[in-house]
Amino acid sequence: MSSPLLTIARGDSLTAWELSEVEAEYFPGEPAPASDPQDYKYVNGFVDVGDLPCRVAIWKDVASRNVALRTDWAVEALYLPGNNRRVEFSQFRHRPTRLARWCRTKVSSAVDRYCSFDLHTRGGMHIWVDGELAGRFEPFTRNADQRSVVHLPIKAGGSEIIVLTEDMAERDTNWFFELVLLDDVALNVYLPGASLGAHVETLRELSTQVRTRGDVVTGDDALTLLFDTPASLAVRVRAVIASTSHTKALLLDEEFDLPAGATELVLCQGRDLPQGYHDLRLTFSAGDSVVERSIGCAILQQASAMALGGDLPSRKRLALENAIAHGESRMGLVVALLESGRTDDPRITGIIEETLLAMAERRDCADFIAVPLLWVWIRCREALPTAMQDRIRQTLLDFRYWVDEPGNDAMWFWSENHALCFHVAQLLAGQSFPEDIFSASGRIGAEQAELAAGRLARWFDAVEEDGLAEWNSAAYYPVDFIGLLTLAELGPVDLAERARAMCDRIFTMVALHALEGVPAGSMGRAYDKELRAGPLTELAPFAAIAFGKGWLNKGVASLPLFAAGRYEPPEGLARYAWPEPGEVISARYLQGYGPAASLGLYKTRDVQLSTNSGAKAGGYGHQQHVLDLRFASHPMARAWINHPGEDDPWGQQRPSYWAGNGTLPRVGQHENIALLQYRLGAQARLKFTHAYAARAGLIHHHHGDTLILEGGEGLVALKATGPLQAIAEGPAEGLEYRCSGPLQGWAVIVAQGESLADFIELIARCRLYFDGGDALVLEGPSLVHLRLDWQQGLLVNSIPQPPPAHGVTPDITISTL
Asked: Looking at residue 81, what is its pLDDT?
C-alpha cells in the first residue's frame, strides 16, 4: 500500500475524500400555509418557523426508502485536509433544493477492529464500509447540528468507506458532515482511486496559505497573492472573479504561472476590476494534481472619503448618476434609469425580465425586488411597453405575499427586514389592483391592502417600542430602506409618516456610528464583508449622500429610492457623523426585543468604540457583532474581538470565523473602556477568542498580553487575561491575535489625549484579572475601578451601571477631551 495521505488519532476528523458531483433536485413539496411564531417580536438567529413543505416531503420520502450503494460515480473533486475539520458543502439556494453527494476514502488500522466515530451532520448520512451498510443517520433538521456515534469495521489491510451525504436546502444551507475518531488508535487514510498526482501536498499547502496583499486593493495597487513558503515547483494558477449580479459576468478569468521559489503572484491592477468585496476562486495545478480554494478580495478605487459638496438634492442626483454608471443589474438600477428619464436604456428589459422570473419562481429575497418593481409600476409604468406592463401586472397578482397564503417555496418571511418588505409589497400591490383576484390568497386587492396595512401597523408598533433587532447592520439597514423609503413615498398618509419617522431613527444611528464616512459599530447582524470592507457596503453611500462626504459604490438595492424620493433625513445629523477635533460623542440606548442590545458608543474624530452590553452571555452569537473599533486613519482601519464560529478564516457559516460569535461574551462599557468576559466551556469547538486588527491605517504594538493599535491620532489598547498569540502565517497573517483557554477576559481602552509613550506606560501599569469568582476586574492608575460580573454585568466603583435612560432613543452627549 502507498504512503497514507494523512494519519488521524483520537479527536481528529476524517478530512480526505473523493467527491462525486453535487446532485441538485428542485424539491418543493405540496403547497401549504406557514406560521409566524415570532409574531412581530424579532429575535436574531430565529429559525424555528415550523416545517416547510419541502422538509415535510423529504421526511416522508426518507421514512419509506431504501438507499442502494452506488460506486459508478465519477470523481468530480477532492476534499483535502487543511482548511476545515468538517467536510463542508454549505451554499445558498433561492428555491427548495434537495442536495446529495457521494464521498469515498480508504482507512486502515494496525489490526482489524471496530472504530467509533462521533458523527456530526445537519442533513442525512448513509455510510458503507467495504460494501456493507454500517451507519444511517437522517435527522434532516434545518441548519441544526445533530450528533450520533457510529461504529465502523476497519481492516488492517484497509477498508473502503463510502458516504452519501444529503441535505434539504432552504436558502442558506450549512451542509456538512464530520466524523471524529473517538478511539485511542492511529488510522491511516488513503485516496487510492483519486488522481492526486505527485504534487497534491504542495498545492494543498499553497491553498491553505493564500491571501491577497493588504486588507484592500486600491486602483493604484496590484492585486497580489501571497504565500508563506516558496513553491517547490512551478504551479499553474487560474483566478476567477464573477459578478454578483444575475448576469454572473466574469470580471477576471485568467491563468498565471507561479514560479518555483516564488511567494507572491500578481494577478492584475486594482484599476482593472470594479469596486466590491469579491469572491476570488483559485485553482492550483501542477502535473495531474489540482486543488481549489476561494478567498475574499476587497477592491476600493479611492483610499479616502470623497467630498460630494452641494445640497442634498444635488447629492441625490449624483447618486442616481452613479447608479446608472456603476450600479448592479437589479431593480434599483431600473428605478434610477426611469426616474432619470433614461427610458430607452437597453438594460431595463433584461433586469425586469429577471425580476419577473425570480418572483414567478418565488425565489428567496424576491420580496426585496418586488417593492422597487411596484415603485416602477406606480410611478413609471407608462415608460414601459404594453406587453411588459401586462406581464408585470400578472406577476404581481400571482405572487405570494405572506405565510397565510399557501406555498411551497423557500422564501424567508420571518426576519424584520423580510416582514417589512412583504407587507409593503402586499399593500402597494393591493392598492394597485383593488378589484383583481390575487391567485395565491384568493382575495381581491382591496382585501390584500387592508390586511397589509394592519400588518404594517403591528410591525411599526413592534419596532417603535423595541427598536431594531438588526441594529446598525450595514447589510440590513439598506434592506429596511427598501420598504421604508417606498412606503414613505407611496404609502397612505399614516403609514408614510411612521416610515419617515423610522428612517429618521435609522439615519440618526448611522450618523452616530459612522466615522470618516464609513458606517461601523456593534451590529445585530454582520457578515465578513460588512466588517472587512465598510466603504463597500450598501449602507456607505447613504452616509455619503446624507452627510456630504464618503463613498459611492455599485449598491442599488435601495439607494435610488432615497435619491429619487422626497424623504430627507433630519437636519444636524452631520455633527454626529463628523465630530470636531477634541470632541467626544457618547451615546447609550436599547435596541431589539428583549431588549437584545444595550448599546454604548464612545467616539472622537480619530477613533470610535461601540459595544452591545445586552448580548446574552454564554449564548449562540449567530451574526451578532458585540464590540467594534473604527479608526479614521483609513477606510479599512477596523478592529474587533469575537469567538470564531467555524474553522475556516474564509468560511461563510453563521457565525463565521470573523462575523458573529460561537459563544457570546458578557460585555460592559464605561465611557472609553470596554470589558469582555468569555466562558467557552469544555464543548467549545474552538478553544480561543481572537482580535481582528486591520493592517491598513494601523500600526500594531504587541507585547505579551497587550496589543496597542495606533491609527493616525487614535490609540487603543487591547489587553487580555493571557498572552496574545500573533498569527504570523496564512489568511490571518498580521491581523489576528488569539487568547486561549476556557475562561478569558479582554479590556479595550481608548486613549484620551495621551502620547503613544505615555499610553504604553499607562497600559503596562493596568491589571486585568479574574477575582476568583464570576468577575473580571480592571485596575490601573487614573482609571475608575471596573468589575464585569458574569451575572450582574458591569459595576463602576462597585455601583451597577443603570440601563439607558431613554430606552430605544439614543441618549447623546457631546463633551470635550
From this structure: 87
* Whether the Cβ atoms of residue 592 and residue 469 lie closer than 8 Å to each other: yes
DSSP 381: G
Distance CA 208, CA 206 (A): 5
Tens-place pLDDT, residues 397-437:
999 999 999 999 999 999 999 999 999 999 999 999 999 99
Quickly list DSSP for 174-236.
--EEEEEE-SS--EEEE-TTS---TTHHHHHHHHHH-EESSS-EETTSEEEEE-SS--SS-EE
Contact indicator for 811, 802 with CB cutoff of 8 Å: no
Domain boundaries, the chain: 6-190, 200-300, 306-575, 583-816
For the segment 794-816, the average pLDDT, to the nearest whole number, is 94
pLDDT of residue 335: 98
3-state secondary structure of 745: strand
Residue 743, classed as helix, strand or coil, is strand
The pLDDT of residue 247 is: 58
User: What pLDDT does residue 46 have?
Assistant: 79
DSSP 4-48: PSEEE-TT-B---EEE-PPEEEE---S-B----TTTT---TT---
- pTM metric for this prediction: 0.95
Three-state DSSP string of 671-729: CCEEEEEEECCCCCCCCEEEEEECCCCCEEEEECCEEEEEECCEEEEEEECCCCEECCC
CA distance 369 to 356: 9
Given a cut of 70, is residue 573 above it in pLDDT?
Answer: yes
Mean pLDDT, all residues of the chain: 94
Q: What is the CATH number of domain 200-300?
A: 2.60.40
| pLDDT score for 17 | 95
Low-confidence winner among 82-86, 446-450, 693-697 (lowest mean pLDDT): 82-86
Rounded mean pLDDT of 523-530? Answer: 94
Separation CA 163–CA 182 (nearest Å): 19
pLDDT of 246 above 60: no
- CB 112 within 8 Å of CB 34: no
The residues near 644 (Cβ < 8 Å, ≥ 6 apart) are 655, 656, 657, 658, 662, 686, 688, 689, 690
The angle, 0 to 180 degrees and rounded to 10, between the axes of the packed helices 493-513 and 445-466 is 40
Cell 509613550 maps to which residue?
A: 757
Number of other CB atoms surrounding residue 82 within 10 Å: 19
292 near 283, Cβ under 8 Å? Answer: yes
CATH architecture designation of domain 6-190: Sandwich (2.60)
- 217-218 and 289-300 strand pairing: parallel
Which residues fall within 8 angstroms of residue 244, CB to CB, at 6 or more apart?
Answer: 276, 278, 328
